[in-house]
Amino acid sequence: MAVDMSVTFTGRTLPNPVMTASGCAANGRELHRFFDVSRLGAFVTKTVMMDARSGRGTPRMAETSSGMLNSIGLQGPGIRAFVAKDLPWLKSVGARVLVSIAGNTAGEFADVAQVLAASDAFDCVVGVEVNISCPNVANRGLVFACDPLASGKVIALVREQLPRDVPIFAKLTPDVTDIVSIADAAVKSGATGLTMINTLLGMVIDTDRLRPQLGGITGGLSGPSIRPVAVRALWQVTAAMRDGRFQTVPLIGVGGVRTGRDALELIAAGATGIQVGTATFNDPTAPQRVLTELEALAESHGVARITELVGVAHDRMVIP
User: Fold this and answer.
1) Omega prior to 197 cis, within 30 of 0
2) Of 33, 180, 254, 286, which residue is the least packed, with the fewest Cβ within 10 Å?
3) pLDDT of 304
């Protein structure tokens, strides 16, 4: 018998747990040339802000030995252009959409959410991913997700602008001392799920010119090298929820997923959903391939439903 690959997030059931990762497939049209994006559990959009942004100066990408650095700077057309063009197109092809939003201030996050909720194509939105892993210009450029109070404020304001049945996922950065405290603050403020993890802050030096390779100096590290960090973060937050330290919510795992086996590792650590990002740069069919491989692996483990494997590694620890 085929494995039931469906997963549920706060009352929203998706046909499978595999999604794109924000920023790695634009807003769908490019990837749709390679496979039908409606086959995925959800399509995650590039992070959209209130106004159009040109992004950071070039060069904006650099390869590493096990991934890549990007310093794009949340380039995009702004929320009004997004709801006028991109969201209706995604709806027209039958995609279930997880919209990634951000803001320079906590109030701007809420403004973006308000415009999104009022859009004509909002009924294809299965959730909102709140990218709090970006700088807060009102607070000396500190990243929202590095501070529990700032994280909680953003989530609370976004929650006020969205219908109560729309899931909100706070996207967390691994560049913190205690990711559990940030997760706790986000959930207590209204997040109904968490996405872990965003890129890690990194830097590359051009050893021929002996200067930073990126125009923005630092950038976000993604790809295979960060998967163990994602597994660790998922494990820690799942363990904290199992211990009753804060309310249990579904987790979306992201970071270095290239194969079904990579996806299964994140699921075993505690993720209900999986996002595929950097892998699409060299294999645009990666999300669909990961889904096929994941289903075969789940079947090999003899489960009837993929959800039986969520967090299973916590029950199989080797006791010394």
Assistant:
1) yes
2) 33
3) 97
